[in-house]
Amino acid sequence: MEEQTRIKICGLTRLEDIDAVNELKPEYVGFVFAKSRRQITKEHAVTLRRYLDPEIQAVGVFVNELPAIVAGYLEEGVIDLAQLHGNESEEYIHSLRFRTGGELIKAFSIKTRENVEKAKKSSADYILLDHGKGGTGESFDWSLIRNMDRPYFLAGGLNAENVEQAILQTHPFAVDISSGVETDGVKDPKKITECIRRIRHV
Q1: Could you tell me which Gene3D superfamilies the record lists for this protein (predicted)?
Q2: Is there a contact between 97 and 48 (Cβ–Cβ < 8 Å)?
Q3: 0.90 surpassed by pTM
Q4: Which tens digits make up the pLDDT trace of 146-191?
Q5: pLDDT, tens digit, 9 for 90 and up, residues 186-197
Q6: What is the DSSP code string of 141-167?
């Protein structure tokens, strides 16, 4: 039997979002610290984290942030994992590893087979495969990752309508959903519930 696909709901900004995920227990939630309409401050994340079920791991999303700052978030327990969504190099990842024991997710924009090969070589604990810079609500061509031989997070344009097909077609370690569970730009508990129900049903 295949292992259950893990779930990450990204871009939480409100205590209502925390209530919704606490009830449904995805394995991960994401707090966005990079410039985005979902961006929150460190202080806000600390508050949200205080109410988050301790069984759910918090991921911080950063874009080209200083390694010392990312390490601080991990060391202080604001987040459990750091997701690097910019042009962070292997040197950057090694520098961050030197400073902290926290797990790292490196995001890659997938447009060609070359992008996939580059992602496979990353020394991060996990790779995340997305359509573009993240949060675009668009999917990439899943056939590009047919023979992926390392654990990865699948992101980009996932929602309740297509997530089952995505899992059956690509067999990811985890799926990462943000705009697909929103209504008018905010997280929608009904959509989160339906999405998670379908993922766990696969």
Answers
A1: Aldolase class I (3.20.20.70)
A2: no
A3: yes
A4: 878 899 999 999 999 999 999 999 999 999 999 999 999 999 999 9
A5: 999 999 999 999
A6: -GGGGTT--S-EEEESS--TTTHHHHH
Active site residues: 10, 130
The predicted-structure confidence for 117-139, as pLDDT tens digits, reads as follows 999 999 999 999 998 655 556 78
Separation of alpha carbons 126 and 42, rounded Å: 23
- Please, where are the H alpha helices in 15-149? 15-24, 42-51, 67-75, 90-99, 113-120
Closest CA to 28 of 48, 5, 58, 49: 58
Report the distance separating Cα 9 and Cα 52, nearest Å. Answer: 13
CA 31 from chain centre, in angstroms, equals: 9
Q: What 3-state DSSP class applies to 183? A: strand
Report helix, strand or coil for 22. Answer: helix
Beta pairing, strands 28-32 & 103-109? unpaired
CA end-to-end span of the chain: 12
Reading the block at residue 187, the tokens are 């997280």
Of 185, 182, 181, 131, the closest CA to residue 7 belongs to 181
For the CA atoms of the chain, what is the radius of gyration?
Answer: 16
Interval 94-121: pLDDT, tens = 999 999 989 999 999 999 999 999 999 9
H helix and E strand count, the chain: 7, 10
What pLDDT score does 139 carry?
85
Beta partners for 175? 7, 154
